[in-house]
Amino acid sequence: MTEHDRAVVLVSGGMDSATAVYEAIERGYDPYFLHTSYGQNTESTELASAKALAEEVEAADFLHVETEHLAAIGASSLTDDGMDVEDADLDSDEIPSSYVPFRNANLLAMAVSYAEANDCSAIFIGAHSEDFSGYPDCRPDFFEAFQRVIDVGTKPGTNIDLVAPFVEWSKTDIAERGLELGVPYEHTWSCYQDESPACGTCDACAFRLQAFQNLGERDPIEYAERPDYTDA
Predict the structure, then answer these.
(1) Would you list which residues are annotated within the binding site for ATP?
(2) pTM of the full predicted structure?
(3) Domain coverage including residue 75
(4) Domain of 59: which CATH number?
(5) Does a structural domain hold residue 204?
(6) Keywords of this protein's UniProt record, alphabetized (predicted)?
């Protein structure tokens, strides 16, 4: 890696991807932010969070792409008004209704195009172990397979590493690392359901609150409810 290596970071506006940004910077990369709006319930808050984070770290570039086709396809409570966002069930091994079919393949395909066009040598994604228990496109095998797609599908001489630094970590591990790196979690948003305040009861809120509670820290964003998830 050289002094000026660049990395595309998939930045959703949430805490995992924000921590991935800081991890990329810690490893010596200049971050190129890729943020997508795909019709999710909280897209405007997520975009604002991603932009605030980009300003905070003085990102080398910020690309916002609208991918309405994921909402048009539907079949996810994040994008389909006819489906309710479920309350958290932290012990479930079922694929949750919030799963957006094959979303990460769509997002990573755009990230590869963005990386190749800007001579980036890496792509960072903040997926972690509690994601892949429910989302098939967050599993280590998926990222290994997609690395092969990158290697085969880009022009000769292109070397882009797909980096999922937290893929074997828990949400608590990520929060601990982020606090160590000084991630401004007040500029992040995880709620699947509401734009302000966060609901505190959907899966995303529950895992996030649980991570901070496990560390004895207070999550800096506002919640309608803050249930205790430490025994969940």
Answers:
(1) 11-21
(2) 0.89
(3) 6-181
(4) 3.40.50.620
(5) no
(6) ATP-binding, Ligase, Metal-binding, Nucleotide-binding, Zinc
